Amino acid sequence: MNIRNVSTVKHAADSRECPRMKEEVAIQRVRTLEKISYLEAKRKVISSSPRVSYAQVTATPSATVNKLVEELFLCFQKR
User: Fold this and answer.
1) Domain that holds residue 33
2) What is the pTM of this model?
3) Is 26 a member of any domain?
4) Which of 42, 53, 69, 79 has the fewest beta carbons under 10 Å from its own?
């Protein structure tokens, strides 16, 4: 059976490579070892993982922008 995650097709939904599954395993590990609640463990795991800002995600390298502008220019020149 080949089940896929709707948001991405980089891995099967039941794959151990799934980032969400890895996070859940870490939460359960912290919860068990430290004998704390699920929410406390989740907060610890999430606060310890690096977060990417909106600006970092939306930032486009200038080389890519330049290439896109060049392609658009060539497209309009052909018309």
Assistant:
1) 19-78
2) 0.51
3) yes
4) 79
